[in-house]
Write a structure and sequence with these properties.
binds zinc ion, 3-stranded mixed beta sheet, alpha/beta, Rossmann fold, about 600 residues, Helicase, Ruva Protein, domain 3, Zinc Finger, Delta Prime, domain 3, disordered C terminus
């Protein structure tokens, strides 16, 4: 590394072809050059390090060149090009608005534009980071932009277009510079490495792409640092020495274990990444890229979609259902949004993965049978043994609940076969998706609402927020309260709190815990209450409506004091023979579709 110039400066593009990405903007500018019809005021907007200033310089150089090659490339031979290369062109001005508020610069531009160019047809002014100009500088610039002389061209570059006054924007053509895509950046990184005498492992190129967040300048800086610790080949181990990133193999391993529901392994792995100081938003980006490829590969059965994964690697995921993969992708996307700029990335990922682990997966999927019910794996070793047993029992119950509804709907059985199949499927699906919580009837909840007070609700809400923002996964209580993570405390009296949970699975989950005396006491002590009512969103909507109706009609009953010890979290269960009858009915009607019903 004899050359003192950084890689980024050394490999700065000198013509349109060298510039990576931004094909649309390049097309527009090239077409202006070919038609010799140049826009007088332009805004180049986009993220840092994507090539805005580089492209502005190339464009300026070609405009000023005396004999451009094919109209779009500088000849590098004429006196204009020579002056440009010596950085002493009399008609080219580059101003950095970030270094001062710019009023003096803009005033001198105003004075300067009235004189004709010395060497070329145009005077070109690039104002970098233009959003940093002060208000008075913007006003001065506006006057200049209102009636610019024909020989003047302005290129305003910015990373924050929203900070530019609309009056300025309306006088300019705006060109957006997107983040570089994986393909373009990888190509450039490999090209630069080869020219520098290094072999760049493709996996490393992928990781550099993720950590640089689409900025080529950052990416080349990372590459340069890797070169300082590498001999000839830049491997993932070298990159890991400098920045803590996870390898592709580690990511694939993690995903496979998430799908196989080896939750112990997954938690250990993520905690291990956390100890090493991984940046979880970058880690998630890598996971999402892999998941996206798997989905495309599975749906289209075409290896052309594989850019990060090898086909052999993608095949590992063929046995997992597409709907599960999509569901995990959704949850991790949510996690990605939440992990940006936060120090609790590890907790968010763990919670989202646990959510995935416990969610019931029901989907109607065209690629497989019309109705599929993915079995919920209950072998979660992180729960205490006792709780585990309760959980399995509870799942039986909730299926029994679904069963009851389908079984009782006798009208279906008299319809003709096609309709029968269809309606039975619909009914089954609706019942699974919109399972109604039957633990507490509306009147019990309304009675508690009458006695509720805002102060206690806020106290509980704050307790819960504090708990999750300082979440310590080693703490026993974390394991107990996790189902309440995305819940909402809708009301509370000094004795009893009402929690609304996203779905029946989470509601069942917390109820399973409440059935165990020891755990129940811990929860109640934590919130300083004597009772907790968990309900689903759906039930809450009904109760709220009923409560408001009663209130509006002045018909709210008086509060009846409760003996909370007599409340039960138990639910009645269908008798076994009824269940068998139901299963037989369902199997009979679904045999064509290979339906799996969990018993
Ligand atoms: Zn030239």
């Amino acid at each position: 590394m004899d050359n003192k110039k950084t890689l980024y400066r050394r490999y700065r593009p000198s013509n349109f072809n060298d510039l990576v990405g931004h094909d649309t903007v390049k097309d527009i500018l090239e077409s202006q050059l070919k038609k010799r019809s140049i826009t007088h005021a332009m805004i180049f907007a986009g993220q840092r390090g994507t090539g805005k200033t580089s492209l502005a310089r190339i464009f300026a150089k070609v405009i000023q060149c005396k004999k451009p090659i094919n109209d779009i490339d500088p000849c590098n031979n004429c006196n204009s090009c020579n002056e440009f290369n010596r950085e002493s062109h009399p008609d080219f001005f580059e101003i950095d608005a970030a270094s001062n508020n710019g009023i003096d610069e803009i005033r001198s531009i105003k004075a300067n534009i009235t004189t004709l160019p010395a060497l070329s047809k145009y005077k070109v002014y690039i104002i970098d980071e233009v959003h940093m100009l002060s208000n008075s500088a913007f006003n001065a610039l506006l006057k200049t932009l209102e009636e610019p002389p024909k020989h003047v061209i302005f290129i305003l570059a910015t990373t924050e277009q929203n900070k530019i006054p609309p009056t300025i924007i309306s006088r300019c053509h705006v060109y957006n510079f997107n983040k570089l895509n994986l393909y373009d950046m990888k190509k450039k990184l490999i090209e630069v490495s080869t020219l520098e005498g290094y072999t760049l492992n493709e996996e490393v190129a992928n990781e550099i792409f993720y950590i640089s967040d689409g900025s080529l300048r950052d990416a080349l800086n990372y590459l340069e640092q890797c070169m300082t610790v590498s001999e000839n080949v830049i491997t993932i181990d070298k990159l890991k020495k400098l920045f803590y990133v996870s390898s592709k193999l580690e990511k694939i391993n993690l995903l496979i274990n998430v799908f196989k529901k080896n939750i112990d392994y997954v938690i250990t792995m993520i905690n291990d990444f956390d100890k090493k100081g991984i940046d979880f938003s970058i880690f998630l980006l890598g996971l999402l890229e892999i998941l996206k490829e798997i989905i495309e590969y599975k749906i289209c059965n075409n290896k052309l979609y594989l850019k990060v994964l090898e086909e052999e690697e993608a095949k590992n995921f063929l046995s997992f259902h597409t709907s599960s993969i999509i569901q995990l992708t959704d949850l991790l996307t949510e996690a990605y949004v939440k992990t940006k700029n936060t120090s609790i990335g590890v907790q968010i990922i763990l919670l989202q993965i646990t959510k995935f682990h416990f969610n019931k997966l029901i989907s109607v999927n065209s690629e497989a049978s019309p109705l599929q019910y993915e079995k919920k794996d209950l072998n979660d070793k992180t729960l205490v043994e006792q709780n585990k047993k309760q959980n399995i029992k509870e799942t039986d119950k909730s299926n029994a609940h679904v069963s009851e509804n389908v079984f009782n709907n006798k009208t279906i059985l008299s319809l003709d076969d096609d309709k029968k199949d269809y309606q039975l499927k619909e009914l089954l699906r609706n019942n699974i998706n919109n399972d109604i919580n039957v633990y507490f009837d509306n009147s019990k909840v309304i009675n508690e609402l009458i006695n509720a007070n805002k102060e206690k609700r806020l106290l509980i809400e704050n307790k819960l927020n504090d708990f999750f923002s300082l979440l310590d996964l080693e703490n026993d209580l974390s394991n107990i309260l996790i189902p309440l993570y995305s819940s909402k405390v809708v009301a509370s009296s000094n004795e009893c709190a009402i929690f609304v949970l996203d779905n029946i699975t989470l509601t069942n989950w917390i109820i399973n815990k409440l059935e165990i005396n020891e755990i129940r006491d811990k929860i109640f002590n934590f919130f300083e209450i004597q009772f907790l009512i968990p309900i689903t969103k759906e039930q809450w909507i009904h109760i709220k409506t009923e409560f408001m109706d009663l209130k509006n009609q002045n018909k709210l009953p008086t509060y009846i004091k409760q003996d909370y010890n007599s409340f039960s979290y138990k639910k009645t269960k269908l008798s076994d023979d009824k269940e068998d009858k139901f299963l037989n009915d369902v199997k009979e009607h679904f045999n064509d579709f290979d339906i799996e019903v969990e018993k």
